[in-house]
Each structure stands twice: as C-alpha cells, then as structure tokens.
C-alpha cells in the first residue's frame, strides 16, 4: 500500500532536507519505488541536493495547473527520483496549495513511497503538506529549542488527526550538554526512529550534489539513514552497534 510521508520539523536548520534526501536515496538502494517531493515552496532545497537547482517544469507549475505531475519528476544519476520546486520568486505566485493533496494522490499511484519535504515552522505550506500526507516523521536536534518546536508540530499533526510515526534525532555529537534520547522521547511521546551523528561529510556530499548514502555509503551518517530507511520499508536493519547506539543505548 502506497504511503505519503511528511518529513518535517518545527525548527529550521535541524537537517530536515538532508534527512529526506538520504531516506529517499536509501529507499532507492533497497529497490523501493520512491519519489522525493519538495513541498517547501518558499525556500526549496531538494533540487540543490541532487544537482538540479533549475528545472523546466517544477512542482510550482503543477500546482498552478500548468503541467502534469509526471512532467515534474526528475531522475538523479543514482536512480533517485525527485520533484523539485522552483527557486524563482515569481513562480510562488498563483500557486494553489489546495492542489497538493491531488498531487500526493497521483504520486501514490506511481510510487510506493512519497516523501514530502516540508517547510520549517507551522505555516500554511506545512499545513497543506501535512494534510496531503498519510503519516508524519519529525526531525529534531538534541536540544530543548528544537525539541520544543517539534512538540508543537506533533500537536498540530494530532489536531489534524495525522499519525506521527516517530522522530529522527540528527546532528548528534554525544556532548554531555545535549538532551538524552530518553528525555527527548519522554517529552515528545513518540518513538525514536533513528539517531544521526554530526559529520562534516554531510556538507561535502551536498557539494558533490548527492546524498551521502550514495556518495559515501559506509560513512556513519549513511549507515544511520540506511537503517532508518530499512525500518520504513519494513526490512531488517543491520544489528551492528555503532558509537551512538552504544552511547545512548539505542
């Protein structure tokens, strides 16, 4: 059964788009039918992650009813499929957010997994993306500000009667001043789907116009995302315990 997942966060800069890009690339590695959709219309970045910053047909054109959704799907050299949004400010005009639900339904007829990369915050773009999804996955950093904003997003999801499948904790260093996983889980009251360490190779992968799971698949960040994607796809994650599993007991 096809599912649309909204990957979101209450706070910007937590690694949300990096997470979407790598989960999509990892699911593609599992030979899953997956497409990544950049529903962050005001500050889109998915195209930049995969070396397609400017495309002839974007999600904006589809939402403006100027193109069909299949015209806006692009395939990266890794095989990962994306639907970028336009970087041009003029393309934000006349975008109809209420058309996003229909786009999501159409993509679910074409793919088993539709990953929606939302804007940060709790604005209209996020609400429209959430309404178009079947379930919500939160991304947060292990600090009280990020976790508090994630809690607000969870409340909005529950108010909209959307299932929150869990949270991914990113940019973890193991510093003693960071919130522990138990504290994060107690505060958010949702499962922790995975822990992703801070690593300078994430930025290097972006400069290389690829997800780190493709560029350096043995990297610890890549392995973390591959494990999370395995859970989403219902596959058995590897049991090998890494530093962060041992440190946090995850």
Question: Could you describe the 3D structure shown?
Answer:
This protein has helices at residues 16-29, 46-49, 59-63, 100-110, 124-131, 144-159, 181-188, 201-207, 212-215, 220-233, 243-248, and strands at residues 3-8, 34-38, 74-75, 81-83, 113-117, 135-140, 163-172, 192-197. The protein has 250 residues and is an alpha/beta fold. Strands 3-4-2-5-1-6-7-8 form an eight-stranded mixed β-sheet, sandwiched between helices. β3 (74-75) and β4 form a beta hairpin. The longest helix has 16 residues, at 144-159. The radius of gyration is 17 Å and the shape is globular. The protein starts with a strand and ends with a helix. The model is unreliable at 241-250 (pLDDT under 50).
């Amino acid at each position: 059964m096809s599912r649309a997942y909204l990957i979101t966060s209450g706070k910007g800069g937590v690694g949300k788009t990096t997470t979407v890009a790598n989960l999509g690339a990892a699911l593609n590695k599992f030979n899953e039918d997956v497409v990544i959709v950049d529903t962050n219309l005001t500050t889109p970045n998915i195209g930049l992650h995969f070396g397609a910053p400017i495309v002839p047909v974007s999600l904006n054109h589809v939402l403006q009813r100027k193109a069909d959704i299949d015209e806006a799907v692009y395939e990266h050299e890794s095989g990962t499929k994306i639907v970028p949004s336009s970087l041009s400010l003029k393309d934000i005009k006349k975008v109809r957010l209420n058309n996003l639900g229909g786009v999501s339904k159409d993509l679910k007829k074409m793919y088993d997994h539709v990953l929606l990369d939302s804007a940060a915050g709790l604005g209209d773009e996020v609400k429209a993306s959430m309404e178009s999804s079947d379930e919500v996955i939160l991304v947060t950093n292990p600090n009280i500000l990020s976790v508090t904003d994630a809690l607000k997003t969870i409340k909005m999801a529950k108010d909209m009667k959307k299932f929150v499948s869990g949270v991914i904790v990113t940019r973890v260093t193991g510093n003693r001043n960071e919130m522990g996983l138990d504290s994060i889980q107690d505060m958010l009251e949702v499962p922790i789907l995975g822990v992703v360490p801070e690593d300078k190779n994430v930025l290097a992968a972006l400069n290389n116009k690829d997800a780190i799971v493709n560029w350096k698949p043995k990297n610890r960040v890549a392995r973390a995302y591959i494990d999370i994607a395995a859970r989403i796809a219902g596959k058995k994650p590897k049991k090998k315990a890494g530093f962060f599993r041992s440190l946090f007991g995850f």
